[in-house]
Design brief:
67% of the residues lie in helices and 2% in strands. With 310 residues, it is mostly helical. The protein has 2 domains: 70 residues, Orthogonal Bundle (Multidrug-efflux Transporter Regulator, Chain: A, Domain 2), CATH 1.10.1660; 181 residues, no CATH class. Strand 2 and strand 3 form a beta hairpin. Helix 5 packs antiparallel against helix 6, helix 7 packs across helix 10 and helix 9 runs antiparallel to helix 14.
Length: 310
């Protein structure tokens, strides 16, 4: 510092750690102007220039452009407002980067071709409103006019993915695969069949109750966990409980036709795409991911089939 309290550009460089070239650059653009010049024509800066340059360096590191930095330094903009706006811009950018990384990771894992990669990229970039429309279209196709009925409204809600704004890469990747499933004609047809079967089981009954799959799982799970052979006599009690609940649900007696009907329901529910949808839905919504239901459904099918003539 000179005797008059001014810094030369070299002294300012040593105090701030910025290069002389950088300080001259900021000075030429009026961001950190010199106070005056020495008799030899060299720039001289007030002590406040140190603080000003340190703030400039911090704001530049955070990604702010020079025009915005100058307005902050000239107090045309509050630092708080600029920070809030920039934080939101970064949040948007972070979401976009997560989407890009999720798509690239999926492409690398699945060995996707260019056409599939383009589709995944498009699905990842959908807005919230566009995502809702895609899911609404899927659910309308599956449930048709029944979707507003009490017995189906809850099921439809439980099948609705809600990708959060701050979704992680795993959630974005799960959303992309789930959205692809929603547009799969074969999967739609299978889910529509399940909805129609469920409606037939409860014809005229608008009370919300467990469906056939839930009834079967409730009895088959403990039997499977206990190691009971589905064809052994020890499985009789579980099958009786399954059929009692299903007969009550349908309002019909437990006979051969009802058992065949239940087997058809369980076979339709065993589509691996249905279980994949549920798993992806849990990831997207941040719900706990449960284990596979396939072994339980297989046990129930074998147990009921072993006790159904023909």
């Amino acid at each position: 510092m000179n005797d008059d309290g001014r810094y030369s550009i070299g002294e300012l460089s040593r105090r701030t750690g910025l290069t002389v070239k950088a300080i001259r650059f900021y000075s030429d653009r009026g961001i950190v102007p010199p106070t005056d010049r020495s008799p030899a024509g060299y720039r001289r800066y007030a002590p406040t220039a140190v603080v000003r340059l340190e703030l400039v360096r911090t704001l530049r590191d955070l990604g702010l452009d020079l025009a915005t930095i100058r307005r902050v330094l000239d107090r045309e903009l509050s630092l708080a407002d600029v920070a809030a706006a920039h934080a939101e811009a970064l949040a948007v950018r972070i979401r976009a980067l997560r989407q890009q990384r999720a798509v690239l990771a999926a492409v690398a894992r699945r060995g996707s071709d260019p056409k599939e990669m383009e589709l995944m990229h498009r699905l990842a970039r959908l807005s919230g409103a566009e995502r809702r429309r895609l899911v609404e279209n899927f659910l309308d196709d599956v449930f048709a006019a029944r979707r507003t009925e009490p017995a189906f409204a809850g099921i439809a809600r439980s099948m609705t993915p809600e990708l959060p704004d701050d979704a992680g890469e795993a959630q974005v990747e799960a959303w992309v695969e789930l959205a692809e499933l929603c547009q799969d004609p074969g999967f739609r047809a299978g889910m529509r069949l399940l909805a129609e079967q469920h409606a037939a089981d409860r014809a005229g009954d608008r009370v919300v109750r467990r469906d056939a799959v839930a009834l079967a799982r409730a009895q088959a799970e403990p039997a499977l966990a206990a190691g009971v052979d589905p064809t052994a006599p020890e499985a009789d009690a579980a099958v009786a409980a399954i059929m009692t609940g299903y007969a009550r649900l349908c309002g019909r007696p437990d006979d051969v036709d009802l058992r065949r009907r239940l087997l058809a329901r369980l076979a339709a529910a065993s589509d691996p795409r249905r279980e994949r949808y549920e798993r992806l839905l849990s990831v997207v919504n941040g719900w706990p991911v449960t284990g596979s239901a396939t072994p339980v459904l297989d046990w129930a099918v074998r147990a009921v089939a072993a006790r159904t003539p023909g």
